[in-house]
Amino acid sequence: MSGAWGVVAGVIGSLLGALALVFSGLFAARATRAAAATTAEAQRAAAQAAAEPTHREQDRAAFEAIKAELRAELTTAREEVRSLRSLVRSLALYVDDLTGAMRRHRIDPPPPPPRVQEYDRTGV
Hints:
Layout: H1 2-104, H2 114-122
């Protein structure tokens, strides 16, 4: 009987060895998947960190373009305001001269509109 037990022990040992091999393979596969996921996450984080300066530079370039456009618009608006102020002053002087000429000829000029009276009073 010792020969039969030896065969049974050999078969059981082989089965246990095969079972251990299967479980170790499953454990290794699970560990490999976890390591792959961790590596992928680390690579994604590294790529994001590497891309951050590029994004900042793009944001800065966009900001500079917007700022330059706004400065140009502001300069244009200021020039237009200066021109309109000069025109209003010139028209006010011209109307004052015409009103004076009318009065010299004993013609009563019509009263100015309220907005003109306000401008004459406040300068604004």
